[in-house]
Amino acid sequence: MPDWHGLSPNHLAYLIRRYTNAGDVVLDLDAHPAALAATTYLHRTPARLFTGPHGLRIRLLPPGRARRSVPHLPGSGVTLILATLPQTTGSLAPDDVTTAMNTWRPLLRPGGFLLVALTTAPPPPRGFSHRATVIAAARAAGLFYHKHIPAVLAPLPEHEPRTATEHPDEGDDGRRLLAGRHVPTFRDLVVFGSTATSEENARV
Q1: Helices then strands (H, E): number in the chain?
Q2: Dihedral of the CA atoms 149, 192, 71, 107 (nearest 10)?
C-alpha cells in the first residue's frame, strides 16, 4: 500500500482511528488507496465528493468491512476530511486556500475535523509561512486550530551532517544543502476542528 503523501498507511490509520469512531464518515478528497483501505479496515464509512445539479454532494461508498451495528446516520455530515494543499502543482496561493476552506467547512458535522497535508516546498527565506497561511484561512472560514503534526518523511540520522560546522577551507560536498536549500525531512500536517462541545473535544 503506498504512503499517503509521505505518511505510512499504519500512521494514517492511527490518525483516522484517533479522530473518528466506528461508523463515522471519512472523506478523502484525493481518493487515495491507503486512505480507503484504512477507513474500511477501521469500520468507518468512506465517502467521495462530487458535483451534482445542486452543488457539492457527499456520496457514501459501499461499506466493505463496515459493521451493520454502526450504521451512518444520513445527513449527519462528515467526521473527518483528509485534504492536501496546494491541490494543484505550484505555489500555495492564499486566495486558493481561503476558497478551499470555505468549501470544506460546510461538509463537516459539529465536532468534525479537517486534516490538511502541506505538500508544497517550504517558502523561500523570509517568505511567509505556508502553515500560517493555512491556519489564517481556516480560522476565517470558521474552523479552530487544533494541532500541528510533523510527519517524518525519512529516518533521521543520529548525527545530522548538515548541522556540522563548515570550515572556510572546506569545499561544498552536498551534505548541508540541496540546490541551496536544506533537504526537507518532514511534512506539515495541520488539524482543524469545527464547532464542538467540550465532550467532543476531549475525545481527541
Answers
A1: 5, 7
A2: -140
Q: Residue 86, preceding bond cis, omega within 30 degrees?
A: yes
**What would the DSSP string read from start to end of 57-118?**
EEEEPP-TT--TTSPPPTTS-EEEEEEEESSSSS---HHHHHHHHHHHGGGEEEEEEEEEEE
Q: Could you give the angle at the alpha carbon of 153 between the alpha carbons of 103 and 17, nearest 5°? A: 55
| Predicted pLDDT at 67 | 44
Do 40 and 64 meet the contact criterion of CB atoms below 8 Å apart?
A: yes
pLDDT tens for 62-85 read 755 444 434 444 456 899 999 988
Query: Is residue 90 predicted with pLDDT exceeding 90?
Result: no
How far apart CA 91 and CA 26 sit, in angstroms, is: 27
Cell numbers for 95, please give them. Answer: 486566495
* Amino acid making up residue 23: G
Torsion over CA: 128, 134, 139, 145 (sign): negative
pLDDT 10s digits, 115-172: 999 887 666 566 567 888 899 999 999 999 999 888 776 666 666 555 666 666 666 5
CA pair distance 162, 69, nearest whole angstrom: 53
